[in-house]
């Protein structure tokens, strides 16, 4: 499973651990890929990576092109423009989207 | 009721029933829009369904407006009353139906061409994270039931009061429940990985909606251009208009007869001298449909059209 962590995401560990657990459950191995900025979002859109970990606002301009998770490890900020740690998934990858949504909700509880 | 205004007593109860059905439609469909909006998430297909449901309120609204105007009496500015408001409402309703069909077709084709893969994730309710698709399906099932029932109830009323707006609204309700079923198929398709299922089903349904809408538009334009009265569900001449023309020819010989429709009413013009014994509407249309003949004129000296 190819995952990119955006530069400047010092708190990425819980999101990466969550994806690592998902990969392990499906007998896959997590592979970190170097990607940055808009290149990373484009790679996710094109399916060259499976998930992207970084800080995104709820009202991100990318929200229609990729599927952003809820905030990881913290509650959703009141300001929809405040970037927080999220996992971006490729649109249409609904099994991964639902599984990570469930894991993030479980983590919040 | 006067010649140019008011609802004939023969159909007053049915028109009232039509109004009640449309009030129910506005209430139920508003609740459908609200429920769909609450669960639509980021799904473009659900957004399209919400927009389509909003547009589907137009025929119900214009029906109520046109009946309200039909009851108003003539005045100096509108000496022939407002009965033609029904014809105008019919054009608006037919255009709304065409808009729904066109919008659905555009959304479907654009989704298929761009190969958009819709994302449907989870939602946490009462501590449990469930697939949002289940909520969407529940909302779509809810969206199917009211239009299916109301549409079937409107058809016979529209037939009895010869109301093309109400008939077009029944077609709109058919479009609503068919789109809802396509949406359910689409969400199930997304669940099993068939991203194209929703758009393909919606495309086929949109073609059927467009076909109904084009037929309704042809009728609406014919009515506004003083065409011979059309049947409720096609662009063919209506049976009662054909029967009236036959009866008039039998009475007055082989003369020119022109029939046109103003809303739900027929106006007849016969090219002959006014007879001493003018037949009543019941003589010409029968007791049940006598209300439909609003006027009968005789023109002893037909005016030559300018070359």
Kindly describe this structure.
The complex is a heterodimer of chains A (109) and B (307). Chain A has 109 residues and is α/β, with parallel strands linked by helices. Chain A has a single domain, classed as 3-Layer(aba) Sandwich (D-Maltodextrin-Binding Protein, domain 2), CATH 3.40.190.10. Helices cover 34% and strands 21% of the residues of chain A. Chain A has helices spanning 13-25, 37-45, 94-108, and strands at residues 2-5, 31-33, 51-56, 66-68, 84-90. In chain A, helix 1 links the parallel strand 1 and strand 2. By secondary structure, chain B is mainly α. Chain B folds into two domains: 9-224, Cation efflux protein transmembrane domain (Alpha-lytic protease prodomain-like, Up-down Bundle), CATH 1.20.1510; 239-298, GMP Synthetase, Chain A, domain 3, CATH 3.30.300. In chain B, the strands form two sheets. In chain B, strands 3-4-5 form a three-stranded mixed β-sheet, with helices on one face. In chain B, a hairpin with a 2-residue loop joins strand 3 and strand 4. The longest helix of chain B has 31 residues, at 9-39. Chain A binds chain B through residues 63-64, 67, 69, 89-94, 97-98, 101-102, 105-106, 109, and chain B through 42, 116-124, 127, 129, 131, 190-191, 193, 195.
């Amino acid at each position: 499973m190819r995952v990119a962590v955006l530069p400047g995401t010092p708190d990425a560990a819980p999101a990466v651990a969550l994806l690592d657990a998902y990969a392990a459950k499906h007998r896959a191995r997590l592979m970190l890929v170097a990607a940055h900025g808009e290149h990373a979002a484009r790679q996710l859109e094109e399916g060259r990576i499976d998930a992207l970990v970084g800080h995104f606002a709820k009202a991100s301009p990318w929200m229609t092109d990729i599927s952003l998770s809820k905030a990881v490890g913290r509650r959703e900020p009141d300001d929809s423009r405040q970037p927080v740690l999220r996992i971006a998934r490729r649109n249409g990858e609904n099994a991964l989207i639902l599984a990570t949504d469930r894991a993030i909700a479980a983590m919040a509880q | 009721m006067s010649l140019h205004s008011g609802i004939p007593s023969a159909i007053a109860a049915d028109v009232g029933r039509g109004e009640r059905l449309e009030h129910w439609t506005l209430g139920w469909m508003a609740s459908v829009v609200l429920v769909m909006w609450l669960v639509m998430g980021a799904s473009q297909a659900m957004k399209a369904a919400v927009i389509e449901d909003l547009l589907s309120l137009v025929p119900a609204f214009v029906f109520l407006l046109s009946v309200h105007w039909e009851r108003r009496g003539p005045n100096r500015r509108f000496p022939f009353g407002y009965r033609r408001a029904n014809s105008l409402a019919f054009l608006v309703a037919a255009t709304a139906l065409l808009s729904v069909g066109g919008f659905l077709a555009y959304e479907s084709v654009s989704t298929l061409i761009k190969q958009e893969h819709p994302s449907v994730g989870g939602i946490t309710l009462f501590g449990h994270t469930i697939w949002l698709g289940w909520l969407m399906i529940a909302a779509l099932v809810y969206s199917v039931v009211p239009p299916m029932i109301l549409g079937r109830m409107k058809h016979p009323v529209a037939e009895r009061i010869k109301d093309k707006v109400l008939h077009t609204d029944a077609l709109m309700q058919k479009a609503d429940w068919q789109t809802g079923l396509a949406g359910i198929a689409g969400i199930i398709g997304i669940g099993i990985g068939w991203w194209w299922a929703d758009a393909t089903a919606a495309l086929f349904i949109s073609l059927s909606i467009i076909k109904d809408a084009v037929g309704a538009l042809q009728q609406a334009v014919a009515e506004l251009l003083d065409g011979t009265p059309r049947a409720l569900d096609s662009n063919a001449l209506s049976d009662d208009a054909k029967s009236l023309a036959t009866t008039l020819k039998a009475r007055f010989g082989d003369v020119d007869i022109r029939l046109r429709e103003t809303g739900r009413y027929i106006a007849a013009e016969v090219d002959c001298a006014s007879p001493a014994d003018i037949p009543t509407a019941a003589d010409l249309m029968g007791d049940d449909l006598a209300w439909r003949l609003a006027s009968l004129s005789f023109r002893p000296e037909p005016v030559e059209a300018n070359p």
